[in-house]
Every structure is written in structure tokens, then in C-alpha cells.
Amino acid sequence: MKITFFGHACLQVEVGGKVLLVDPFITGNPKAAHINIAELHPDYILLTHAHQDHTLDLETVLHYNPTAILVSNAEIITHYNAKGFTGHMMNHGGSWLFDFGKLTYVTAIHSSSFPDGSYGGNPGGFVIEGEHKNIYIAGDTALTYDMKLIPLRTKLDLAILPIGSNFTMDVDDALIASDFIECDKIMGYHFDTFGYIEINQQEAILKFFDQGKDLMLLEIGDSIEI
Fold it and tell me: pTM (2 decimals)?
């Protein structure tokens, strides 16, 4: 399983011979100017919620990849179905066996609306199980006790957590979250895109290191394999 960071909360996951793009927000991020959307070829596009900093480039990606399947909550899929796009609806606690593996839609504590203010349903995160590896993509969320439910069903190999604070949990809450989900290998995201969520990266890494945990902060365009 290969995970590539495209900045902010945008990820690409290659698993089971398929390409999953998560929360496509690239052109609105000056730090991701070197990422060419036309070169992305997802089979699936996963949306954690409807905010513009997670959906901005969705329709452009679909222009280049019209057969890509959207996966999100019912409200988001209904919204894009009305525009002629194909999607798979999910809701909290639900799982589905796709051709790349098992996907579960889990709780996130946040808000969710489209740029025009219309309702985007409840936000969520995703647990992906494939190639005998399991990852948790938390989406935009506060620290929530519901995270303790994840390891009751799934042993995680990697968790991708927001760490920028202000709109989501911060580094210290992410440390607590790593205990809740029983996963010491963390990839941070949703940080440093703009002023509200800038962090001290070395301090963040050291906080995890001091507790025997690994916090990975990738450069935009870089990848890891698990």
C-alpha cells in the first residue's frame, strides 16, 4: 500500500491495484503548485466532507477521469449525482467491500457544508483495509472518544491525523488519539497550508518521539509505503 501526500488533506492511496484520491484540494494551495491534476488517474475519489478545502478540484479531476467513482456520505453523493457523477453512498459505521479492499466510514467531529452554504451531511473518516494492511484517514476532526472503537475491530498499521489545530485537533490531541486508536505510526496532515494552521514541525515530531511514537510529516508530492 502506497500513500502520497498532495498537500493539506489531499492524499492518494494505491491499494489492491486501484488508485484512491482523498479530498482533492490542490489548486487552492500555492504550496502544491507543482502537482499536475491532469496527471492524477484515480479509480475512486473519497470525500470526508463537503468543505471547499476538501472538494475544490473534484470536478476537474472528474473531467480527466469521468469513470472515477465518488465515495462519501449520502448528502454529498446526492449532490454530485445531480451533476451527473457516479457515487457510492455510505454512512457512519457502515462498511463495504470494494475491489481494492474493505472501506468503513467512521465518525468525525467537524462541520460540513458546500461553498454555497448548502448542507453537506455529517463529516466522516475512512478505515481502509487492503493488501493485509489497515489505515485510518481521520478527516477533519476534533479528538473524539469514538476513536477508541476503531481498534476493537481493526488493528491499524498507520493513522493519518490532522494536527494543525484551530479547525481540527492539534498535535497534543493527535498524541492522545494515537493512544485511543492503538497506533504509534502516525502521518500528520491538515497543517501549514495557511496561517491558522501553521505548526512547529520539529517540535511536533519531538513530542511524538518522546512518547515512543513516530510522526511523519511528508513534503508535498512525497510518498510512503507500508
Answer: 0.98
Name 162's Cβ contacts closer than 8 Å, sequence gap at least 6.
9, 138, 139, 140, 141, 168, 169, 174, 188, 189, 190, 191
Q: In the beta sheet, which residues pair with residue 127?
A: 104, 136
Encode pLDDT of 160-215 as tens digits.
999 999 999 999 999 999 999 999 999 999 999 999 999 999 999 999 999 999 99
d(CA 99, CA 76) in angstroms, rounded, equals 22
- The amino acid that residue 93 corresponds to is G
The mean of the pLDDT values for the chain is 98
DSSP 38-64: GG---SEEE-S---HHHHTTHHHHHHH
Angle between helices 171-180 and 201-210 in degrees, nearest 10: 30
